[in-house]
Specification:
The protein is mainly alpha-helical. The chain has a single domain, classed as Sufe protein. Chain: A (Alpha-Beta Complex), CATH 3.90.1010.10. It is built from eight helices and two strands, in the order H-H-E-E-H-H-H-H-H-H. The protein has a two-stranded antiparallel sheet. A hairpin with a 5-residue loop joins strand 1 and strand 2. The chain is globular and about 40 Å long. The two termini are 26 Å apart. The model has no long low-confidence stretch (mean pLDDT 91).
C-alpha cells in the first residue's frame, strides 16, 4: 500500500476527474478481502455503499487492514483511510487523529456528501478495532 504522503503528493496535482480515477485505482489496489470476513461486525454503518473493514495484528504489533466496498469510489476512500493507519501499532491508530491526516485531501469539497458521509464511521470502526486489539 502506498503511503498517505505519496498519495497526497499525487492528489494535489490532479484535476477533479483525475482525482476520482486515483481513488478508483487505490481501491483496486487493496488486497482482496475474503467473503467470510464480510460480516455484520466488520460492516461500516452509515455509508451509502456497503463497506467492510477487518484488522489483522501482525507479529511485530503493527496493524494491517483488509477492506472492501461494493462501490469503486467508496473503496478508494476506504483505501485512503487505511493508508493513514496501515502498519502502525494498535495504540498509535487508536490515539491518532485520522481525520486530521485526511484533511489535506479536502474530501468533503472534492466529493459528494453522499460519498463522504461514511468517512467518520470508517475512521471510528478502524479505531474501535485498534482499541480492542491494543487492550
Amino acid at each position: 500500500m502506498r503511503s498517505l504522503d505519496d498519495i497526497r503528493e499525487e492528489y494535489e496535482f490532479l484535476e477533479a476527474d483525475d482525482r476520482y480515477r486515483l481513488l478508483i485505482e487505490l481501491g483496486r489496489a487493496l488486497e482482496p478481502m475474503p467473503a467470510a470476513l464480510k460480516t455484520d461486525a466488520t460492516l461500516v454503518r452509515g455509508c451509502s455503499a456497503s463497506v467492510w473493514v477487518y484488522p489483522v495484528a501482525r507479529d511485530d504489533g503493527r496493524l494491517h487492514f483488509l477492506a472492501d466496498s461494493n462501490a469503486a469510489i467508496t473503496k478508494g476512500i476506504v483505501a485512503l483511510v487505511l493508508a493513514a493507519v496501515e502498519d502502525r501499532t494498535a495504540g498509535d491508530v487508536a490515539a491518532m487523529d485520522v481525520a486530521a491526516a485526511l484533511a489535506p485531501f479536502d474530501l468533503a469539497n472534492q466529493l459528494s456528501s453522499n460519498r463522504t458521509q461514511g468517512v467518520p464511521n470508517m475512521i471510528a470502526l478502524v479505531q474501535d478495532h485498534a482499541r480492542r486489539i491494543a487492550g
